[in-house]
Every structure is written in C-alpha cells, then in structure tokens.
Amino acid sequence: MRKTSVNIAGVELKNPVMTASGTFGSGQEYGEFVDLSLLGGVVTKGVSNVPWPGNPAPRIAETYGGMINAIGLQNPGIDVFVNRDIPYLRQYDTRIIVNVCGKTAEDYVGVVERLAGEPVDLLEINISCPNVKEGGIAFGQDPKAVEAITREVKNHAKQPVIMKLSPNVTDITATAKAAQAGGADAISLINTLTGMKIDIHKRAFAVANKTGGLSGPAIKPVAVRMVYQVAQAVKLPIIGMGGIMTAEDAIEFILAGASAVSVGTANFHNPYATAEIIKGIEEYMERYGVQDINELIGAVR
C-alpha cells in the first residue's frame, strides 16, 4: 500500500489534495459530484466576522487560460458558518480548513477567537485583504504587516495557522520569511494575480471593480516558481496552488516543495477535478515506484 498521507503543522491529511478557498463554497455545492471524504481537506470560502456583501456585478470574466474574479469575498459571516457549514463538513472524513478574511487586525482576531472552540483543523489567513487602516494596501504586500498580523492571529488561535501569501509583491520570499518570523505554522501560495479585462465592444471593463484576481492555468508557471523560491527560503510546510487542473500539475507543485496542493479554478470547469487528481497522483506513484508521497516533496532542487 503506497503512502499518500502528508502532515501540515501536526495535522495529518490522508492525501495532499485540498480545495482552494472561494472555489468550493463549504462543500455543499460539490457534494453531489465528489465524495468529500476522498479529499485531504476542504478549504472553505473566506469567513469574516460580519456578513460581507461583496462587490457589484459583473464580478467574473473569462480570460485566455483562466478567469478574473472580483467577488469581494462575499460571505454570510461567522455566525452562519458556525451554525450551518461546520456541521455539514463534519459529516465527512476530511480535514476542515477555514479561510479567514478581514479588513483590520481586530476583524481577523474576532473570527479566530470564535473558531477556537469549534471542531476545525486548520486556519488559513487570507492576507490579500485590503487593510482599511493603512489606506487599502493588502496586509500581504508589506512584510512588516505580514509579520504583525501573523503574530496577532497566532496570539489568539487555538488551531495551527496557515498564512496565505499574495503574489502581488516584488519578492515573495520576503513575505514568506515575515510570516515565519510572526510564528506561522504553514504557508499557502499563491493567491490570485491582479488582472484586468476590457470589453472592446462595450468599451467598458469586464468586471465592475475594474481589476480582479486572475486564476487558472495561465498563472501556474508563476505559482510553481514562487512555491520553489519559498521552499528554499523558509522551513515551513507549504500548500501550493495556482492553475492546478490535473495530477501532473499537482505533482509539479509537490516536486517544487509543496507538501500539499489546493485545487481552485479547475472545480468550475470540472467539478470532479479533485477526485481525478487524487487518483492521478496514486497512478503516478504506482508508475514510478514511489512508496511514500513525502519522497516527492521538494525532490527537485
């Protein structure tokens, strides 16, 4: 029996395949397509301390090799999440990773404290949110802010903390090192790249927000490069994501240094993607005689 389990900050996942936040809801939408118990973990949509309405429509546009979204982290807030989504996910034999978003440090802490007594396994902190107290610059774009928000969250968290890094920086290793200095237990990357699309027939922006997050296969080479750089720079487990559509894509991230992967945009195109990727990884291990998936993590130097 080949070993596919991996360890993220003391939490064992049966395999390295998870969902990416914002692309899978909290699993309800995909339950009819994928047995959630097959997955290493389900990463929820972003959860804030109060309901967020999100951005005005249109909020999604298709692009060559991917899509742009400007949803604005619309969500019903922590109360609904605790009462509705956690009980649903608890029915399945999978790890629950809650993505936390906020506009101030107090927002993040409020959610983290609320989750302290809940049966969830890991917290993923989305630091691509605009920091309203600093004029809207994302928490994740300034290493000092990354270290500060990481430390603040860690002071209140009962579960291990994963810091989700923004790729919209000059040097991804600087923010990764800052997260490590702040006490992060793991890192996930990359979040979406900032992009824009213009409808030439309407002579208007394709999404009302003008800019949005670019995801999908178009960003995968950037994501693999950043995962590799971060794996060389810090000693934390890494969850890699960005354009993973197939098992081959997932294995590329693992070879670059990721202990686990998150599948996002692929879910919109193919709701069976996560299950197919798990099967494909197992077939790859069989084909190349790999006994333990951990042999592959960071195998390319």
Quick summary of this structure?
With 301 residues, the protein is an alpha/beta fold.
Structural description of this entry:
With 301 residues, the chain is an alpha/beta fold. It has one domain: TIM Barrel. The protein is 30% helix and 20% strand. It contains eight helices and 16 strands. It has helices at residues 78-89, 105-115, 143-156, 172-181, 220-233, 247-256, 266-269, 273-288, and strands spanning 6-8, 11-13, 17-19, 41-43, 60-63, 66-69, 95-100, 122-126, 161-164, 186-189, 193-196, 198-199, 204-205, 211-215, 238-241, 260-263. The strands form four sheets. The protein has an eight-stranded parallel sheet with strand order 3-16-15-10-9-8-7-4. A four-stranded antiparallel sheet has the order 5-6-14-11, with no helix packed on it. Strand 8, helix 3 and strand 9 form a beta-alpha-beta unit. Helix 2 (105-115) packs parallel to helix 3 (143-156) and helix 3 (143-156) packs parallel to helix 4 (172-181). The longest helix is centred in the C-terminal third of the chain and has 16 residues, at 273-288. It is globular, with a radius of gyration of 18 Å.
| Run of helices and strands | EEEEEEHEHEHEHEEEEEHEHEHH
The helix/strand class is alpha/beta
Question: How would you classify the quaternary structure?
Answer: single chain
Shape: globular
Number of domains: 1
Largest sheet descriptor: 8 strands, parallel
Mean pLDDT: 96
CATH topology: TIM Barrel
CATH superfamily label: Aldolase class I
Helix content: 25-40%
- Secondary-structure arrangement, i.e. CATH architecture: Alpha-Beta Barrel
- In DSSP terms (H or I, runs of 4 or more residues), the helix count works out at 8
Number of strands: 16
**Terminal residue distance:** 28 Å
Low-confidence stretches: none
Q: Roughly what fraction of the amino acids lie in strands?
A: 15-25%
Order of adjacent strands in the largest pleated sheet:
3-16-15-10-9-8-7-4
What is the CATH first-level class name?
Alpha Beta
Radius of gyration, whole Å? 18 Å
